[in-house]
Give the backbone structure.
Amino acid sequence: MTLWAAVLVTGVGCYLLKYAGLSAPRALLEHPLVRRFALAVPVALLAALIALQTVADGNRLVLDLPRLGGMAAAVAALLLRAPFLLVLVVAAATTAVLRALGAG
Amino acid sequence: MNRPVPLSALTALARRPPVRDGFGVGLAVGFSGLAFGTTAVASGLSVLQACVLSLLTFTGASQFALVGVVAGGGNLVAGAVGALLLGFRNTLYGLRLSELLDWHGPRRALAAHGVIDETTAVALAQRGRADVRAGFTATFATLFTLWNATTLVGAVATESIGDPDVFGLDAVGPATFLALLWPRLKEGGRTLVVALLGAAIALAATPLLPPGAPVLLASIAALVALGDDGEPTASERSAR
């Protein structure tokens, strides 16, 4: 497979995967079990992404102190009901400062 | 649009919480296209290949997965399969969004391209179909524009951008998803169990499975929600 073919297969394939979900037969969603599963799936996937983007590097789990500190700061900001963008700024700034200080 | 829209109407629209949320998320996440453009070109893609990948794929995790394989000199078929495996979670998001958005024909075909983590998270945070649609569209439009523009900038300027980690930008991705998921987490109960279990499954599977697979495996945590323990959650009620 050439690099261009890989790029095009990935792009077109990813679009078709999105479209398939959006076009699933309505009857499928009317089943209460499917409905509950579909409601819960994004929660599970987003939580998994949060965990992996915080501590995973490829196949390894890595405790990067500045990034963990940034996430802890984000939790604190959320508990203090900070607006969305402020939460992100606090997370990035905390990580940057901890990293500049040489923590990890 | 056929008729001119008064500026005051546009201002009012921009102040609507779902539009503001979507714009905020798009702004916050869109600049990570810089990181993608940089990584892609550093991995051996041309600027044009990096841009086509962002335009057509428009789902960051899949794009990074493919580029990671290219950088590692891995098999391109495996790279594309890994990217598609990661892209499969958008199918699950679509399953959820199809009834919330309730769009058909060409509009659905267009909206499908925008079914990703961020648009789903913003859409799920809204109440009522009009707000769901507004939030989805605002996020999609902002993010698509910025993601592709910054992919180009990042790809062209690969050498001069340096290390985004210095600015703590690696914490922006997980912090974004956390902030978006926060209202659902505060529901507690079954929703919180699903989230914690999903994170635990993904972490446990990481050393064992190829990158991309652990996130998909985490979807089995949603099976917890199948048990009927009486009271529906807030988001279940709003979906009715």
The mean pLDDT of chain B is 82. Chain B touches chain A through 105 residues (CB under 8 Å).
